[in-house]
Specification:
The complex is a heterodimer of chains A (223) and B (958). Chain A is α+β, with helices and mostly antiparallel strands. Chain A has eight helices and twelve strands. Among the domains of chain A are: 1-44, no CATH class; 158-221, no CATH class. In chain A, the strands form three sheets. Chain A has a five-stranded antiparallel sheet. In chain A, helix 3 (78-85) packs antiparallel against helix 6. Chain B is α+β, with helices and mostly antiparallel strands and 958 residues long. Chain B folds into five domains: 2-77, Roll (Ubiquitin-like (UB roll)), CATH 3.10.20; 85-192, DNA polymerase, domain 1; 196-297 and 396-471, Aldehyde oxidase/xanthine dehydrogenase, a/b hammerhead (Aldehyde Oxidoreductase, domain 3, Alpha-Beta Complex), CATH 3.90.1170; 487-657 and 810-954, 2-Layer Sandwich (Aldehyde Oxidoreductase, domain 4), CATH 3.30.365; 665-805, Aldehyde oxidase/xanthine dehydrogenase, molybdopterin binding domain (Aldehyde Oxidoreductase, domain 4, 2-Layer Sandwich). Chain B has 25 helices and 33 strands. Chain B has a seven-stranded mixed sheet with strand order 8-10-6-19-16-17-18, sandwiched between helices. Chain B has a five-stranded mixed sheet with strand order 2-1-5-3-4, sandwiched between helices. Chain B has a five-stranded mixed sheet with strand order 14-22-21-20-15. Chain B is globular and about 75 Å long. The termini of chain B are far apart. Classes of the chains: A alpha+beta (223), B alpha+beta (958). Chains A and B meet through helix 4 and helix 8 of A and strand 4, helix 23 and helix 25 of B.
């Protein structure tokens, strides 16, 4: 794998344009893990920030903030800390980043439900400069770009749950509730966000983690 | 590229490709503590380092990220050759066993205690959250941390590490730490991968994508023409030698039903070609250039498929017998497909390959129908077990080279002498041309009882003359390695209102996969290790093992017993529920006790009539009583949350200690010229402490400190024959051989001393710390003086004790496991709140190791009960080829309250009264947890794994 080392955000997105099949390389838990074989990677660790800080009404979390950093920081919204806790391995949390986790748009992502329910603004770097989009739109694939940071409202209250056979297996389902907004994920099936019954919008599929009926039932009783 | 960093406190320059995994670079640099157990999945933690102040998986870091980094590996814990206090405490606590990732564990705990000296259990759990332990369980890591804290505060350990036994003995029954613990925990070069020479070639195996297919043709010309390719072997150019891969005593109760590479592939992942090349990249490129024409066949993927009328036949070659051929064999073979590989039986296993039957057996006592007729209630249920995988942290590996005209294999094996025999066979050379060196084994659990890689590797080395290294990928470990035999077990059990069991019938249908490794003996265990627990006059079993195209089954700790116990323990619980009586009282009413004649054994020999013997030492009653008291049996626990229901269950269990009448062990003990000792044990220490037991035997008998004893084991050149480490034979057989050798040497030492001192042998005795003392004249002769004189120019010769051990006698360990489980009846979540494992190991020679083996074995069986699942698609392809997908239990899954208890019972036949400990501990979790779930929810789940979905379905939730 050829690893490109951009010195600026602009250079990073230009590299992506030059190598469309390249992946952004953040914490490495995806790019470097088993079964992934990319010809090109763009190392963003030196150009994307990892700080967590507050402004008057918001919490800003840099995309390179690791799950462990989020978990340990009292500046992080509690719902996000609970989401980070779903990653069961300390070593994984020390490497995996919030940006990397969300960029994969996985229906079994540790932070997927928590981020959807807490409705942050996601700041992207694109060829045309910075762009702020909703988490909904990003997760729906309406926008692409290099994730720079997440901007959460302050004083978020909520809960995150997951059900999986073991702590380390992919979760069959997860759910999050934040200030009355619900988000759900189901493996191999996708995710949904909205009211308490929004899980009904998911097209459930069976897989080795459970049948479609099982997952549907779990989300129906989750909250 | 070259990068500069600080490594273990010193400036270092690391070299490699910019994208090369840091783990590989560090290992190459000399940090051999940084292992790889998961091919960069980021799961097991064997590759853990401290990187810029954080614990991270080094497999997930490219070299280029290490520029100016501060890196600490386990090598940083050492002070010269001295280990640190954390490593010492780990040894003391008994958690350094197969030790493949013990150095990484030590690094993690050292780091924890550095940043939080008062770390508590939650902190330990957090820091070990990314570390997979398969052998010793997690429980004693909490103890290890506590010991460190105590030593730092008080100057010594204060907590009891393990109970001590046999106060009249010096080292036997006392926690002392393993003699190789320091070497293991410090990350010394002790494993096969550490022996690989720089000029080594690699072996890569091209494997079948089909579960069942003919290889019609294979064109290897392009592969062979590739620069760097030394040789390519296929079914068309390997020897016409039949054998089997099960490491069992010869003649083996497993059919010889394969060659090195077969023309018909019988499971996804079956060998198609073996490529020997200068490096992995070239070998994989060569594999991609091999043109294979397959003719796919319909696969058989279950016992039901195999049994069905007109089912495809997994084997349909000519059948031969070495002995005991049936009279109609010629007729039978008329329909054989002579293009298929033969199936050769050493003696009848009652197989019928035309019905996909690999082996069959039956037997029993009394009249079960009469017994059922007398019953007030009958349970007749079928239980299914799945195909759990051993998942050793060190995958299957082997390194071989030619030296002085001989084939030398560095192997991670439980059975070095079986390896020698089988490799000699496939290479068509005499055994003296093969030298097997058993290296430290980073996890075996039965899967390294089978000769799964050494056969092909040995052949390739012999033919090419090149040094060659082979290592299974983790995916290959899942689909091309030994698993448990999936079984379908019908149990019919009848009982009276007073709790007397009147009859037990077991119908065992087992799935051996594509080859017949252990096809009779594993399924036999389902009955032979369960029925002898019962004092029931009418018991019968039928057993049929089927060939299928599933991944290959073989030996796994516990063998067939865990499946049998799941079935029979559940049936007992269900019967008790039906009769409205306490299952524990029912068990006590029907269990055997010391002196009871085990008539059932007559019908439970493995391919021959079994010997009837009385029950020997038996701690079963004590285990049941104590366990019941500990868990508060009979007291119903209630949760504050109405969705959570709590239940309790138990299992009474036994196992064996080796195979009386079959196993054979040998040992020699040498008195060296300075008065110290070397033990040459044929036994194979898998990390379980067998070498330490041998050292303790010598220390105890010859009255020397353990520091005066070294042990060499499992080297087929220097050590005498031993059948190997399986069937829980280590303590009973190999250690008894060590004990006999020590006693033989003692006799010889006293004889020689009598001559040297000109005294009567009867007046001489051995005394600590290594003296011969005359009770008559008070004269003293040191061992140094004794040996020095004996080996002088006028001496009578070196003093060597030789011992062997065979026996017709059984030393059966017994036990009881208790579980308290909470089930959320809304979501199906299951938590094992309490698990108590109580076992009699006779005199536990290494009590701290024994307890950790119990923890490790119980965790494995909690795994197969609740979590682990090797899933196949409809075409027989394995879907779960990573740890994450497969579902091994981690520290988060360990019971909140988890205890091992050793019941103090002395055995007549075991060395110093010892019996086996680790296999039996695999037998209790499944029935105990199933019973606890039923107690909690009213629902019996009769298949592995017991999942939340299954419980919810039984509850009618959806």
């Amino acid at each position: 794998m050829k690893i490109h080392n951009p010195k600026s955000l602009e250079e990073a997105v230009q590299l992506k344009k030059s190598y469309p099949e390249a992946v952004y390389f953040a914490g490495g838990t995806y790019v470097y893990s088993l079964g992934h074989d990319f010809a090109d990677a763009i190392d963003i660790s030196r150009v994307v920030r990892n700080e967590i800080y507050h402004t008057m009404n918001h919490v800003h979390i840099g995309a390179m903030a690791t799950l462990e950093k989020i978990l340990l920081s009292e500046l992080s919204p509690l719902i996000l800390r609970n989401g980070a806790k779903l990653c069961p391995s300390l070593q994984q949390r020390s490497a995996a980043t919030i940006g990397g986790n969300i960029a994969q748009r996985r229906d079994d992502g540790y932070l997927t439900a928590a981020v959807l329910a807490s409705e942050p603004v996601i700041v992207l770097m694109t060829e045309n400069g910075r762009l702020e989009v909703s988490a909904d739109d990003y997760m729906a694939g309406k926008y692409d770009g290099l994730i720079l940071e997440f901007i959460f409202r302050k004083n978020l209250k909520g809960d995150v749950k997951r059900i999986g056979r073991t702590s380390h297996m992919h979760m069959a389902v997860s759910g999050a509730e934040c200030n009355g907004v619900y988000a759900y994920t189901a493996s191999s099936s996708g995710f949904a966000k909205g009211g308490k019954d929004s899980w009904q919008d998911i097209a459930f599929e069976s897989d080795s983690l459970g049948s479609a009926d099982y997952k549907r039932y779990l989300l129906s009783v989750m909250f | 590229m070259e990068i500069r960093c600080k490594l273990n406190g010193r400036n270092a320059i690391l070299k490699g490709r910019e994208d090369e995994r840091l783990r590989n670079v560090l290992y190459r640099y000399g940090c051999t503590s940084v292992r790889d157990s998961d091919d960069a999945e980021g799961f097991t933690g064997s590759d853990t380092i401290i990187f810029n102040g954080s614990l991270m998986y080094s497999n997930l870091i490219p070299l280029c990220r290490a520029e100016n980094a501060e890196i600490l590996t386990a090598e940083s814990l050492m002070n010269g050759r001295e280990i640190n206090d954390v490593q010492e405490a780990m040894i003391a606590a008994g958690v350094v066993q197969s030790a493949y990732n013990s150095p990484a564990m030590a690094l993690v705990l050292t780091y924890l205690l550095r940043i939080k000296p008062e770390a508590d259990k939650n902190d330990v759990r957090r820091f070990l959250s990314g570390m997979f332990i398969r052998d010793a369980g997690y429980e004693n890591f909490y103890l290890a941390v506590k010991l460190v804290q105590e030593k730092r505060k008080y100057g010594s350990y204060r907590s009891e590490i393990a109970p001590s036994f046999r106060p009249e003995l010096s080292v036997i029954g006392k926690p002392s730490g393993k003699i190789d613990g320091k070497a293991l925990v410090s990350g010394e070069k002790l494993f096969v991968e550490d022996r690989v020479t720089p000029d080594s070639y690699v072996l890569h195996v091209l494997r079948s994508p089909f579960a069942h297919a003919w290889v019609r043709s294979i064109d290897t010309s392009k592969a062979e023409a590739l620069d760097g390719v030394e040789a390519v072997y296929t079914a068309f150019n390997i020897p016409d030698v039949y054998y089997m891969q099960a490491g069992q005593g010869n003649p083996e109760p497993s059919p010889y039903d394969r060659k090195l590479i077969n023309r018909k592939v019988r499971h996804q992942g079956d060998r198609v070609a073996a490529i020997v090349a200068c490096d992995e990249e070239t070998a994989m490129k060569a594999a991609s250039l091999i043109d294979v024409v397959y003719e796919p066949l319909e696969p058989v993927l279950s016992v039901e498929d195999a049994m069905a009328e007109g089912a495809p036949l997994v084997h349909n070659g000519v059948v031969e017998y070495v002995s005991g051929a049936p009279e109609n064999l010629d007729e039978y073979n008329k329909s054989a497909d002579r293009n298929e590989e033969k199936v050769i039986y050493q003696f009848p296993l009652h197989g019928d390959i035309h019905k996909n039957i690999a082996a069959a057996a039956h037997g029993g006592i009394g009249d079960v129908e009469k017994g059922f007729a007398e019953a007030d209630a009958i349970v007749d249920e079928t239980y299914r077990t799945s195909q759990p995988q051993c998942t050793p942290l060190e995958p299957h590996v082997c390194f071989g080279h030619i030296e002085n005209g001989r084939l030398v294999l560095n192997a991670s094996t439980q059975v070095p002498y079986h390896v020698r025999r089988i490799v000699a066979r496939v290479c068509q050379i005499p055994e003296h041309k093969v030298h097997v060196i058993k290296e430290k084994v980073g996890g075996g659990y039965g899967s390294k009882q089978d000769i799964l890689v050494e056969d092909l590797l040995g052949f390739c080395v012999w033919k090419t003359g090149k040094p060659i290294y082979y290592r299974n990928t983790r995916a290959e470990e899942f689909y091309a390695n030994s698993t448990r035999h999936p079984m379908r077990i019908r149990v019919k059990m009848g009982g009276k209102r007073d709790g007397t069991i009147t009859a037990i019938y077991m119908d065992v249908r087992a799935n051996t996969g594509p080859y017949g490794n252990h096809c009779l003996t594993v399924p036999m265990n389902a009955s032979s290790k369960t029925l002898p627990l019962f004092k029931v006059d009418n018991m019968y079993y039928d057993l049929i093992t089927y060939y299928t195209n599933c991944p290959p089954a073989g030996a796994y700790q516990g063998y067939g017993a865990p499946k049998g116990y799941f079935a029979i323990g559940s049936a007992l619980g269900e019967l008790a529920m039906k009769l409205g009586i306490d299952p524990l009282e029912m068990a006590k009413k029907n269990m055997v006790e010391e002196g009871y004649m085990l008539e059932i054994l007559r019908g439970l020999g493995e391919g021959r009539e079994g010997a009837v013997v009385p029950v020997g030492s038996c701690g079963l009653a004590q285990a049941l009583d104590k366990g019941a008291e500990m868990i508060g049996w009979g007291h119903k626990e209630e949760s504050e949350d109405p969705d959570w229901k709590i239940g309790k269950g138990f299992a009474m269990i036994q196992q064996g200690s080796g195979l009386p009448g079959l196993d054979h062990s040998n040992c020699q003990v040498k008195l060296l010229t300075d008065g110290t000792f070397v033990v040459l044990s044929g036994g194979a220490d898998l990390g379980t402490g067998l070498d330490t037991i041998s050292a303790k035997c010598v220390s105890e008998i010859l009255k020397v400190p353990m520091e005066n004893v070294s042990v060499v084991s499992g080297d087929t050149d220097s050590c005498l024959f031993d059948t190997g480490a399986y069937a829980s034979s280590g303590t009973y057989f190999s250690a008894n051989a060590s004990l006999n050798a020590a006693k033989d040497l003692k006799k010889k030492m006293l004889q020689e001393a009598a001559l040297q001192l000109n005294e009567n042998e009867e007046d001489l005795e051995l005394r600590s710390p290594g003296l011969i003392y005359s009770t008559k004249t008070k004269r003293v002769l040191s061992y140094y003086e004794l040996s020095h004189t004996a080996t002088s120019g006028s001496g009578r010769g070196a003093l060597i004790g030789t011992g062997s051990f065979t026996t017709p006698n059984f030393a059966i360990p017994y036990g009881a496991h208790f579980a308290q489980v909470a089930v959320n009846v809304k979501t199906g979540e299951i938590k094992v709140q309490k698990f108590y494992a109580l076992q009699d190991a006779g005199t536990p020679i290494n009590p701290e190791l024994a307890m950790c083996q119990m923890y490790g074995a119980v965790m494995k069986s909690i795994g197969h009960t609740l979590y682990e699942d090797l899933a196949l698609d409809k075409d027989g392809r394995c879907l779960t080829t990573t740890f994450t997908d497969y579902g091994v239990p981690m520290i988060q899954e360990a019971p909140e309250d988890f205890r091992s208890v050793l019941i103090d019972i002395n055995d007549e036949y075991g060395p110093f009264g010892a019996k086996s400990i680790s296999e039996i501990a695999c037998n209790g979790a499944a029935p105990a947890i199933a019973m606890a779930i039923a107690d909690a929810t009213g629902v019996w789940v009769r298949s592995w794994p017991i999942t939340g979905e299954k419980i919810l379905r039984e509850l009618g939730r959806f």
